[in-house]
Amino acid sequence: FNIIIPEVEIITPIRDLKLSREAEIEYLAEHGVEYSAEKARYSINKGLWGTSVGGKETLTSHETLPESAWPTQVSETESRKLELTFEKGELVAIDGETLAPVRAIQKLQAIAQPYGIGRDIHVGDTIIGIKGRVGFEAAAPVLIIKAHHTLEKHTLTKWQLSWKEQLSSFYGNWLHEGQFHDPIMRNIEAFLADTQKVVSGKVFVELLPYRFQIIGIESNHDLMSNKFGSYGEMNNAWSGEDVKGFSKIFGNQVMIWHKVNSEEA
User: Fold this and answer.
1) Rounded CA gap, 123 and 71, in Å?
2) Residue 79: which of 111, 118, 107 has the closest Cα?
3) 246-259 average pLDDT score
4) How many other C-beta atoms lie within 10 A of the C-beta of residue 217?
5) Quick check: 231 pLDDT over 90?
6) What is the mean pLDDT of residues 136-146?
7) How confident is the model at residue 21 (pLDDT cuts 50, 70, 90)?
8) How many CB atoms lie within 10 A of CB 29?
9) C-beta separation of 178 from 172 below 8 A
10) DSSP helix/strand/coil, 155
């Protein structure tokens, strides 16, 4: 806010007055606001990218949320297979039905949430150094992230994956701490967007109560193409002599280091 609208006063009574949850409930009751005493025990915040759940259990390090605290109860018991289609890193279709981004997330959430998929308790670090726990249910995000990552494993190189993991971790932390307008974010976004040019294809997923599994993928950009050989089987792109030479050269610097330092010892 100091960057975009520095002239606007930000009013934060809960923070400034140090109001507890009990004080908030009492205030609402005094002003005639009806509420469920049972539900008031938990703070539930629902958004497109999941629902967070906080209560007395998440204020401890050892308790978990009871089944009744989760906003969506498990009702699906039979397994179901899904086909998720990605185009340049974006989910664009579910079971062949083309969908706009927001609608795709909403539909996947409606399908998967009744399985109890995506439930967990997150432990995180705040910018002021305090650790916190919060429960969340986020079936669609968990499925999309895992399916997308699997597709990336097939379509990106080792070092693209390595640098993307490092940069995305920094990006997520810096974004969480409110530094979206830092110019480094635009630099990282350019890299991330560029990596997604080939992340297109289908990911096959099976849903089951409380869990899911990625069955496999199909992509024109799959680097596991058997035209170049099969892992642990036949290799078509090089000979045995090529491998011997590569192995010797690849370990050359480490071999030199050990010889030099063993002589000193």
Assistant:
1) 20
2) 111
3) 87
4) 20
5) no
6) 97
7) confident
8) 13
9) no
10) helix
Amino acid code (one letter) for 171: Y
The pair of three-digit structure tokens given for residue 211, joined into one six-digit string: 């869990």
> SS3 for 203?
strand
3-class DSSP state of 62: coil
Q: Of all helices (H) and strands (E), which one includes residue 93?
A: strand 90-94
Instruction: List beta partners, residue 208.
Output: 211
In whole angstroms, give the CA distance from residue 213 to residue 261.
48
d(CA 222, CA 201): 9
Q: Which DSSP string do the residues of 212-261 spell out, in sequence order?
A: EEEEEEE-TT-TT-GGGB-TTS-BSS--HHHHHHHHHHHTHHHHHHHHHH
Q: How far apart are CA 104 and CA 81, in angstroms?
A: 16
- Does pLDDT of 204 surpass 90? yes
Radius of gyration (Cα) for the chain, nearest Å?
A: 25
Q: Is the predicted pLDDT of residue 38 greater than 70, yes or no?
A: no
**For residue 124, what are its two tokens?**
């995180």
| Residues 118 and 211: beta-carbon distance below 8 Å | no
> Cα dist. 112→79, 96, 142, 208 in Å?
11, 17, 10, 9
DSSP conformational letter for 178: T
Please give the share of the chain, as a percent, with pLDDT higher than 70: 92
3-state secondary structure of 80: strand
DSSP strand E in 88-221: where? Answer: 90-94, 97-98, 119-125, 131-137, 201-208, 211-218
Q: What is the pLDDT of residues 40-62, one digit of tens each?
A: 788 899 999 999 999 999 999 99
Check: CB of residue 110 under 8 Å from CB of residue 120. no
CA distance 77 to 18: 44
Residue 67: name the closest of 135, 134, 132, 124 by CA: 135
As a whole number of angstroms, the distance between CA 142 and CA 138 comes to 6
